[in-house]
Automatic annotation (TrEMBL):
Domain Acyl-CoA oxidase/dehydrogenase middle: residue ranges: 137-227
Enzyme class: oxidoreductase
CDD domains tied to this protein: ACAD
GO molecular function terms attached to this record: flavin adenine dinucleotide binding; oxidoreductase activity, acting on the CH-CH group of donors
Record's keyword annotation contains Flavoprotein: yes
InterPro entries per record: Acyl-CoA_DH_C (IPR013107), Acyl-CoA_Oxase/DH_mid-dom (IPR006091), Acyl-CoA_Oxase/DH_mid-dom_sf (IPR046373), AcylCo_DH-like_C (IPR036250), AcylCoA_DH/ox_N (IPR013786), AcylCoA_DH/ox_N_sf (IPR037069), AcylCoA_DH/oxidase_NM_dom_sf (IPR009100), Mito_Isobutyryl-CoADH (IPR052547)
Domain named Acyl-CoA dehydrogenase/oxidase N-terminal: residues: 30-99
Annotated protein name in UniProt: Acyl-CoA dehydrogenase YdbM
Source organism superkingdom: Bacteria
Pfam families, alphabetized: Acyl-CoA_dh_2 (PF08028), Acyl-CoA_dh_M (PF02770), Acyl-CoA_dh_N (PF02771)
Alphabetic keyword roster: Flavoprotein, Oxidoreductase
Amino acid sequence: MNAPIADSAVTRRHPPLDSDAFDALLARLTSEFAAGAAHHDRTAEFPHANLTRLHEFDLLSLTVPAALGGAGASLPQALKVVRAVARGEPSTALVLVMQYLFHHRLQGNPHWPVELRERVAREAVRDGALINSLRVEPELGTPARGGLPSTIAKRSADGWIIDGSKLYSTGSPGLTWLAVWARSDETPPRVGVWLVHRETPGVRVGSEWNHLGMRATGSHELVFDNVFIPASHAVDVHPPGEPGAGLDALGFAWMSVLLSAVYDGVARAARDWFAQWAAERTPGNLGAPLASLPAFQQTLGRIDALLFSNRVLLDASAHTEHVTLDEAPLVKYTVTNQAIEAVQLAVEASGNPGLSRDNALERHYRDVLCARIHTPQNDSVLQGAGRAGFAAYVHA
């Protein structure tokens, strides 16, 4: 496991990553974020204050390498932080996951100019600058299912001009850097990532994020209208089909574990609400709390069994030597579906109170359902797993 920074020139504001004091800090942040979660859900207001708090304790730069001032965190350490944040306010946690995933892989990407890699990393440490990959488009949908982007990068005399739009740009109100997936206007075109600063003229919000759950992620459409960037900002661009810096087994493990942890955290918050509600709810005709009834005890037991399975799977998968490239999507499938089932059990048992907008469980239910839309989706996971499973029995 990687050690936290000790020798960096940057002063650390958090205790060592593996300590009782660090665990206490995370518990405090969970409570703080939970107190404002209903407001963020109701207003869809981006959680700037939560992210400022995370930066205050150097948690936005957790996966930046130690040599550049970050904590050089391991996957188990990143998992610990994401779990805590998600249990309090999951939209904040999703933005944090995107930050962790990008910085975990950035310095190992040989296609980026060194000075840009280091600039993005140092700004995350110093300023809490956020970055995310923008890939989904209105016509294309998710690129995981194939196709070339419609967003175009045109050569200019001293750089590139970007035109197009991206949907579901998670974190967009707080991002400093946009890693935009596009294709060049060359023949044949090249495809890859052009790095755009959020404040560049011509970048604007199109349609705003207005979804059932995870409402505070700021996953707006971003429109690029004649956006100029320097030539060096074509950071990872290749002919179609040529290997680039795509996700390897380690990258897929990080994505599957941390993304799943967001929705596991939602389910745990739902579980806590249900347990407290059943312990306090005392119908007049019963004369005792609902928690005294075998049916409610069994429901909580089923929920806890699902969440126990999630915890064991996430902890084991965080030690990535246990997860292959084919298995990583199954982590996401299993954990998120068990999280959804756990919340559904609580909703079913609580009845009308569980669906009341006055109670947190209704919000947790909407949030946890959003797990289904993340790549890879359930059908792709199962088809891929089935194809791999049959491979040993089907001979050409």
